[in-house]
Amino acid sequence: MAMEHGRGHGPFSGNFRFGMKVLVLCFVFSFLILQLALAYNEKKCDDAPSEVGPCKASFQMWRYIKEINACEEFIYGGCRGTRNLFDSEKDCIKQCLS
Asked: What the protein does (predicted)?
């Protein structure tokens, strides 16, 4: 069986072009996700401070209090919080005070 040039093998084959399209789509998707994450983080500190909430869990969390420009520790019940909710004082300070 004779091989045809330009079909099925090499850098210009259909598989290579498909792979490049997938790679480009992955980069674009990753970039969009990063932009959404950055936009989400920018607004966390502007949200009203999270409250304990109606759930019965007991998580030690941190929130930013705009009026005093400080991070405050509180017990979070596990539901109905705002985005102004941080796992650690360090995260709160990094997002809201630096």
From this structure: Serine protease inhibitor that inhibits trypsin at a molar ratio of 1:1.
